[in-house]
Amino acid sequence: MTTAMTTDQLALLVDGPDSPFIFDVRATEQFERWRIEGKTRLDVLNVPYWTVLEDTDTYADRLPARPVVVVCGHGGSSGMIAEMMDLPNVANLDGGMKAWARTLVPRTLWEDGTHFVVQFDRLAKGCLSYAVGMEGGPMAIIDPAVDPAIYQRFAEARGATITDTFDTHLHADHVSVGLSLAEAVSGTYHIAEGDAEQARFNYAPLRDGEEFLFGDVTLIVRSVATPGHTPGSTSLEVAGRFLMTGDAVFVTGVGRPDLGGETEPWAKDLFATIHNRLSPLDPALDVCPAHYTSRAESHDDGTVRRKLGDLLTNDPVVSIADEAAFVEHVVTHLGEPPQVYDKIRLVNLGLEHADTEAVEELEVGRNECALSGDA
Hints:
The protein is α/β, with parallel strands linked by helices. It folds into 2 domains: 3-100, Rhodanese-like domain (Oxidized Rhodanese, domain 1, 3-Layer(aba) Sandwich); 104-371, 4-Layer Sandwich (Metallo-beta-lactamase, Chain A). It has helices spanning 7-11, 28-33, 49-54, 56-62, 76-85, 96-101, 148-157, 178-184, 193-196, 263-278, 308-314, 323-332, 340-348, 356-362, and strands at residues 3-5, 21-24, 44-46, 68-71, 90-93, 105-111, 115-122, 127-134, 138-142, 161-166, 188-191, 204-205, 211-214, 217-222, 235-238, 242-246, 254-255, 286-289, 306-307, 370-371. A hairpin with a 3-residue loop joins strand 15 (235-238) and strand 16 (242-246). Helix 7 packs across helix 8 and helix 10 (263-278) packs across helix 12 (323-332). The longest helix is centred in the last third of the chain and has 16 residues, at 263-278. The protein is globular and about 65 Å long. The model has no long low-confidence stretch (mean pLDDT 91).
């Protein structure tokens, strides 16, 4: 009988020294669009399953003696390959890349026994969301993605009640579940007017300096209606410890300012955001963004964060002090954004509908929201 590995189990292994060998049997073009990645480069072999079927024994001999995980789109073809190989060290990834895309790994950033700040890592896309709240009390979710039920189960396990959801900006790389989660729990959905003025749904517009309280944890709205990555990009300061920056700045680099067709003006606005809005804040704040580019950006505990002062001083892009030099660097290092991002933005505004299958297709591939110093 074929051994199965869940995506939750795999998620705990990909960053560590015991990461398995990945035998990906999807078509080459699918593999090149996105693949399973870890903190360091994983050992991966990609051979389309129909090719493996022609000579299973030969490919079985090419696999190492250590643990191997066979991967396909939905888990069916890979399960067949694993069963035919019938090796004790070979397991099938249950649900395949479809399940991997929906996997969230929660990691605690801070807790005091009553209050908590938790980072959810969607490894397949490098997306980050956050839970802020109180055991047995109110809770907020920031930049939620994939499945509202995941956050609801998390709240139930802590006896907490989700009262508010926040989107730091209008997402382009993935479909937000901020509104649907708020509706499911009879809570309030918040986003800045600068990003949602065309939206076909009701929301609570964020106001600069507005404060929310979740138990004894204060959430303060920062940088509202300051264009850069998007016109309404918003940072949320949490517990005087964390700054959820969305896509304005990452732990490495900044958010691309070309998704709305105003590249140079928005690059200037992004420069102003960094120097006029973020620089005056406490340099000891941990910047906790909505995305990362590589698992290599994570700490040993798996969390993705960086001190604001370190980012402002030492990041090769964020630290550029001259506006003209900053804008030139940004404009000349962008590349073309994925065309699908326009469609996702319309879905997130409620201007177009996408069913579950369509959302899965729209979200295939890692996010390309960042402009880094390596660009």
